[in-house]
Amino acid sequence: MRFREAVAFAYAMDWPLNIGITITWAALKTAGERNEGHCLGRGEWDREKYTRDELARLCRSEGLPFVALWGRDKGADMGWHVHLSIFWPSYKLAQLVAVIERISGSSADFVLKPYAADVVARSVCGGWQINMNNRKDDKESALEWAEYIAAQHAKHPAPPEIKGKAFGISEAIGKTAQERTRPALEAREAKYGWMMRRAVAERP
């Protein structure tokens, strides 16, 4: 429920969760290039936090909030990995790829134009991948991706032992931000909601 509320709030604030990132730490440690600046030598929780901190730093450098939700897991095939859903301007995809390359130490095998395909970038070792939310109903797609992230541990006979938080929502779309902004959103709905609903109804 917390993820669904966070996604709905992100879209209400015009921060669509248009980017999906998967980082598979086991693949990066086994087959990655280990280029300068990577965080693979850090502990499990530390490298996850470092990754989010660096993504948040990237957002701040562009004057944007860090809008994200994430889930960590350890699977039989993928080992330690993390899924993130974030808001990031599609025309600045190259900057996002550069940060992921630095964090992971693994170069991109390919980088496509935004929305050219579902998968727009992947590392040479397959240790990280960036997806674009290509669906026409992108909010519903974001909700489905959030549910997928939230259901990670349900795939296992027993939940994996994970140090630190297994799931999280960034402050920009967390409960406190939602409560603080609710009056303004309700006032906007009361004033302009009928216009927005009419525009949706008139779409071909």
Please characterize this protein's 3D structure:
The protein has 204 residues and is an alpha+beta fold. It folds into two domains: 2-173, no CATH class; 175-204, no CATH class. The chain is built from six helices and seven strands, in the order H-E-H-H-E-E-H-E-E-E-H-E-H. The protein has helices at residues 2-12, 25-31, 44-61, 93-104, 138-150, 175-201; strands at residues 19-24, 68-75, 79-86, 108-111, 119-123, 128-132, 167-169. It has a seven-stranded antiparallel beta sheet with strand order 4-5-6-1-3-2-7, sandwiched between helices. It is globular, with a radius of gyration of 18 Å. The model is unreliable at 194-203 (pLDDT under 50).
- Principal-axes shape call: globular
Helix content: 40-55%
In order across it, which strands form the biggest sheet?
4-5-6-1-3-2-7
Q: Structural class, from helix and strand content?
A: alpha+beta
Low-confidence stretches: 194-203
Spell out the helices and strands N to C: HEHHEEHEEEHEH
Tally of separate domains: 2
Secondary structure tally: strands: 7
Distance between the termini: 32 Å
Q: What's the overall average pLDDT, rounded?
A: 87
Radius of gyration (Å): 18 Å
Strand content: 15-25%
| Total number of helices | 6
Offer a few descriptive terms.
7 strands, globular, 204 residues, 6 helices, alpha+beta, single chain, 2 domains
